[in-house]
Amino acid sequence: MTLLQLKYIVKIVECGSMNEASHELYVSQPALSSSVKELEKELGIEIFTRSSQGIALTVDGAEFLTYARQVLDQASLLEERYKNAKPRKQLCTVSTQHYMFAVEAFVEMIDSIHSDEYEFTIRETRTRDIIDSVANMRSDVGIIYLSDFNKDVIGKLLREKHLEFHALFRAPLHVFLARTNPLASKKMVTMKDLKPYPFIQYEQGEDGSFFFAEEAVWPDYSPKQINVTDRATILNFIIGLNGYTVCTGIDNGDLNNEKICTVPLDSDETMLVGWITNERAKLSKAAETYLEKLKSVVADHGYKLID
């Protein structure tokens, strides 16, 4: 086993495909594949499963990846100490549902990092993609919510994929409305009040089950419904089409407070927002910093953190 082979494994996981990794490593794909197979043979384990859809880490591969990263970190420290070489880039990848506070914490994390080089990634994406990304160690942290409706299904999926859910805060439900909407002045709205207006929700792709929905509740029947994939679009539709969506109620400067407001929704349901991590992975220093900033941002918005 060599450090080069360990670097190959880490790069393949980061890229998500053998072909893309071979391009970034400047080695041929057959040579890269052969090196991985030799390592698997030497260790007596299968690191990747290979199919027509691509490659994915096995259970043994996920555990091996954790040790490989630790070894490479130690090797980098040795090089920095004795060869005066540059340290490895600070790395952190976060996958999240469409929460403005998650982005706000990401900005604060980057501002606090004192490093000449770093490579950070944040993805606002579908619920199932968040879970798969953390399970395959393509993301350090995932931000999702649980409710009474989805907790059994999501919880079972997390356990199957060896993921841990860490509760952050519990939020009563709100809706985003345009300030020109007649309901914007109400202290609380009901789903019946909202029926005449377009219901806007985040599209969940082929896994469009209600259990994966980002909205904790939805109308029994909505004559006007719009599915979107990004946060900017949903905010534009709220303003331009007088639509609404269900949310935690946390806003920030991105919300455009002159045009959009949050109003409490009359519902017994709540959203237990938290982060997921892979139980086999050790968080990077940058990821730990992100979680600290995440807690700070939520607390600054007036929500009580869950220990």
TrEMBL record:
The lineage of its organism: Bacteria, Bacillati, Actinomycetota, Actinomycetes, Bifidobacteriales. GO terms for cellular component: protein-DNA complex. GO terms for molecular function: DNA binding; DNA-binding transcription factor activity. Gene3D superfamilies: 3.40.190.290, Winged helix-like DNA-binding domain superfamily/Winged helix DNA-binding domain (1.10.10.10). Coiled coil: none annotated. Belongs to the LysR transcriptional regulatory family. Pfam families: HTH_1 (PF00126), LysR_substrate (PF03466). This is LysR family transcriptional regulator.
